[in-house]
Amino acid sequence: MADQENLKETVKEQFARNAEKYVTSPTHAKGNDLDLLVEWMEPKENWTVLDIATGGGHVTKKLSPHVSRVIATDLTRGMLEAAKKHVQPTCQNVWFMVADAENLPFLDDTFDAITCRIAAHHFPQPHLFIQEAARVLNPGGKLILIDNVVPADEVLAKFVNKLEKLRDESHGRCCSIEEFTKWAMEARLSLEKSRLRKKTFDFPTWVRRTTRSEDQVKQVERHILEADQRLQEYCGLVMKDGTISCIHIDEWMAMFIKK
């Protein structure tokens, strides 16, 4: 329990310190998954939508014109304040609330749709997030989850999660598709659609979004450069002028429906 609470405090500190970076980050602000999210969800004008761990508010801003209201939650107050500045000039049907994804402050069967994008790997107990999302979702409602994932291969999974942890102290764990699917099934969520893709990062930008020093950057670089060929190939290592230019990671997008 102490480790879980410590991680949550680290998450709050990290996101408060880097809030504006997450608002402007191309990885979070752009991407065809935002358009695809709307296409898959098919939102209705009378819907109430919950955006869990909204971060920079990009999903909230995308969905706001299509629904009655969006409740944007995040564990970090400073992150919510940054998201509000980004969203509210054009979106008046959005409410912002500090909330823990693993213990949502809402009644059962409250929301027509729920989203969580590029955030679950920060949750200490992601299975509780899935349970909570299912609980507050209306019967027939849709949960769209987008997150970085790892293969079932333990060596590859360990390599990716250590890479992420070296770069970002608030990283919890990238889960596998098999884990997410199992937790969803246990929560009576049915998988309707999914997409797995390789997401490429400009390494110098990506690594410095969360690191505190150049020494920490060097640790991340060594982890990649000292790995064996299979691990380097898995993360799509590209070198340029003797330095790491880019890498990639697996990202899974899935839509579940509550039975």
From TrEMBL:
Matching InterPro entries: Diverse_substrate_MTase, Methyltransf_11, SAM-dependent_MTases_sf
Top-level taxon in the UniProt lineage: Bacteria
Name the record gives this protein: Ubiquinone/menaquinone biosynthesis C-methylase UbiE
Stretches assigned to the Methyltransferase type domain: 50-145
Residues in coiled coil: none
Pfam family, one: Methyltransf_11
Annotated keywords: Methyltransferase, Transferase, Ubiquinone
SUPFAM superfamilies the UniProt entry points to: S-adenosyl-L-methionine-dependent methyltransferases (SSF53335)
Species in which this protein is naturally found: Ammoniphilus resinae
Family statement: Belongs to the methyltransferase superfamily.
